[in-house]
Description:
The chain is an alpha/beta fold and 240 residues long. Helices cover 42% and strands 22% of the residues.
Amino acid sequence: MSMDTIDFSRIPLAGARVLDVGCGEGRHSLSAAFLGAGAVVGLDLSARDLATARQRAQEFSEGQGPLAPLTFLKGSALDLPFEDHSFDGVICSEVLEHIFPYQAVLKEIVRVVKPGGWVALSVPRAWPEKICWALSDAYHEAEGGHIRIFEEPTLVRTAEQAGLRLTTRYGAHALHVPYWWLRCLFGGDEAASDAWPVRLWHKLLLWDLLKAPPLTRTLERILNPVLGKSVVYHFVPEAP
């Protein structure tokens, strides 16, 4: 349905009440609602992104049928407006690299997830990200852009200190790495998307998304463990 980073087949989603922290335009919220969650709340600071998410939810429900109850709220990941242990699962995908006190976000996530629940986090993989930063300042200096590169031991250690235990990790979106390298090579800003190599690779990504041909799906599956643009971590809360 959408270009999910989180692999929902690895998550006990059926009937779960799910929070999507930093939901953006709602891709993971919509997928969770479509794939069997009991209820989904998407939270973000951007009113514009939330408006897009609501529109997408309306369009999808009109085209595909009713979704699980789905709510989009404006709010901060640093101060989640929910009671303790309110959710069976929490998603936080491609968010922590944008926030200075990310440790506080992890603590808030641990606070609102139920004992026995699950947490799925994703951040950009360090070494492809370092190449993007080296090629273009505009890539990470844009307003709301990436402010840090996560080395895996640091993120996992901080999550464990917040009260989480790692259960699995995997890569995602390997075919997107050359696209971002090309964008950075041509300046890293929005204008870079007009360069013909960038446009050509973008067409490849759209074709892959829409058609899911075996060639590109197999290639990405092989490359994801080492080249995936994102690394996804699944955690469970430690017993109190």
